[in-house]
Sequence to fold (248 residues):
Amino acid sequence: MYRENRLKQHFADGRKALGCWLQMCSPLAAEIVGQAGFDCAIIDIEHAPGDLLTAISQLQALSASPTTVLMRVQWNDPVYIKRALDAGVEGLIIPYVNTAEEARAAVAACLYPPAGIRGAALAAVRAVDYGKARTEYVRTINDNLFIILQIETLSAVDNIPEIAAVEGVDMLFIGPTDLSADMGRLGRADDPELAAVIARAVSAVKDGGRLLGTIGYAGENLEEMFARGYDLVIGASDVVLLREGAAA
Ligand code: 3PY
Ligand code: MG
Fold:
């Protein structure tokens, strides 16, 4: 059922948040993650093999949980974004946003006109409770969504001041893996130059007045990450939890 975005309220209250990726395309895994008490669960369509129907199964599994459900879409593409929003996700992580122009396009894809270009099918889609919530949905959804843009190239880091200034962006999210690849250092998570670029990105996001997110790093202490300025850490994944549990 359409509801207030708890994650957005959580940050408005000045709190930090923990997230878990859903990469198994499994409603059972999603339900377990929701019951564990994560602030948000992120259905990953960029790197996991699911589709919109597996996403909807996971949304249904999480509907009784206070955990806010986001989706990381495949690409900064208004067609994917429209379909993800119609499925009823409460926010999006949009990968590989490198310029203010791309950031404006990402936000526009999320919002109904006149603020944006999102197409509307109010009686047909799950997000609107198949038409039942249409009045409240139309009135509130542009403000209720939580929009996260990923910073994962050197040029995106350079452009953070302009990207952060784009109206409607809620959070910038550093993707250290693709950033390391862009720097020719893929897989070298402890590279000092990568650490320096990430530190520069953290300061730029904070200076730009936006919330800041990233993934958890092996061996990193969450409290220290929060103290360094991160507001959201996606520090777990259903796949990794199962792999590590199985290996143990
Ligand atoms: C990256 O590190 O590239 C990400 O996209 C984070 O998940
Ligand atoms: Mg990435």
